[in-house]
Design goal:
This protein has about 325 residues and is of the alpha+beta class. The chain is built from 10 helices and 11 strands. It has a single domain (about 70-320), classed as DD-peptidase/beta-lactamase superfamily (Beta-lactamase).
Length: about 325
């Protein structure tokens, strides 16, 4: 048998060495690639970043904004005559309280509850989702839904925020994953997330119940979250609208229960409420000369006239003063 040449032996040795080197490099590359994929975030993170339903529904910061003009009561006159048992008036931009009464007293919120109902709905549904009317609620203020009607979530949100329809609120809750009980649980979970420490819900409508309560402070916080949500903020300022089911068979004329919307320039939403136990409630925003004021009235004897009086009091007795920043002050003193 012919002997292998020294050249062939050397070539084989070089080839074996080369293959061994390639194997090590390949193994090293696989390890690096595995570590890279292990460190990548899961798919659900990208899903939430891309498809989260509402990016803007974050609570307003409640600490005073340092550079915002501050409201100053120039007359030292306050609306102590109000019949409302719970009152909170705040300049929204600076987060400064202008007047308060029984700020943390537990009270029946009535249909102001539907602010939370709307927020929980948008945590799960898209506005253009279509759901079916199943159980008909026939008590209180109604949107006049028809059993079996298929209607968008958006139109039902108009129904609860503009017309305060109890049937619309129940339909939304009933179509929630897990039904009404799970919906109410989600309401209370969100209340904790928003630091509504003196709020508890037992239903999505606002029916009276000893375990269904809130406070002027908590409802003000809740209202600001609603106003910070573009979808809902648009809805609460509409005086009236007509909506229909998906087949354009059933039409519903919705009129804003807040009589001041469309009557007084600058007034929008946010929500009304009334039961025999809760009395008259109204949460509104008044805008004038670039200033936005949030007004919360609970258990009032005349919510609309008192809110109108408060608006006049705010803008007749306050001026907004610019406050110099600490840097500007130091430069002035040098």
């Amino acid at each position: 048998m012919p002997k292998k040449s020294k050249f062939r032996k050397k070539t084989k040795k070089k080839l074996d060495t080369s293959l061994s080197s390639v194997s090590i490099k390949h193994l090293f590359g696989m390890v690096i690639l595995s570590i890279f994929f292990f460190l990548l975030p899961g798919q659900n993170i990208y899903y939430h970043l891309t498809f989260s339903k509402e990016q803007e529904d974050l609570p307003f910061v409640e600490e005073p904004i340092s550079n915002a003009p501050l409201p100053v009561n120039t007359t030292n006159y306050f609306p102590d005559y109000l019949t409302a048992e719970g009152v909170y008036i705040e300049d929204i931009v600076s987060n400064i309280s202008l007047f308060e009464k029984n700020l943390d007293m537990n009270m029946a919120p009535a249909s102001t509850t539907k602010m939370m109902t709307a927020l929980v709905v948008l945590d799960v549904f898209y506005p253009d989702d279509v759901i079916e009317v199943k159980t008909l609620v026939k008590e209180g203020h109604l949107m006049e839904l028809i059993e079996g009607e298929r209607i968008t979530v958006e139109n039902l949100l108009y129904g609860i925020l503009i017309h305060s329809g109890n049937d619309a609120a129940y339909t939304l809750a009933e179509n929630f994953p897990g039904g009404v009980d799970e919906f109410v649980e989600a309401m209370n979970k969100k209340a904790k997330e928003l630091n509504l420490s003196n709020t508890h819900f037992t239903n999505p409508i606002g029916f009276d119940d000893e375990n269904h309560y809130s406070t002027p402070r908590d409802l003000a916080r809740l209202a600001k979250v609603v106003l910070n949500n573009k979808t809902l903020a648009k809805m609460v300022g509409i005086p009236n609208i007509t909506v229909s089911d998906v087949t354009y068979t059933h039409f519903h004329q919705l009129i804003n229960v807040n009589e001041l919307v469309g009557k007084i320039p600058g007034v929008s939403g946010v929500k009304t409420g009334f039961t025999e136990n809760a009395g008259e409630s109204l949460i509104s925003v008044a805008q004038r000369n670039g200033h936005n004021v949030l007004i919360v009235l609970l258990k009032s004897e005349s919510r609309f006239s008192e809110t109108e009086e408060i608006i006049n009091w705010v803008f007749s007795n306050h001026v907004w003063e610019e406050v110099a920043s600490p840097v500007e002050t130091d430069e002035t003193n040098t």
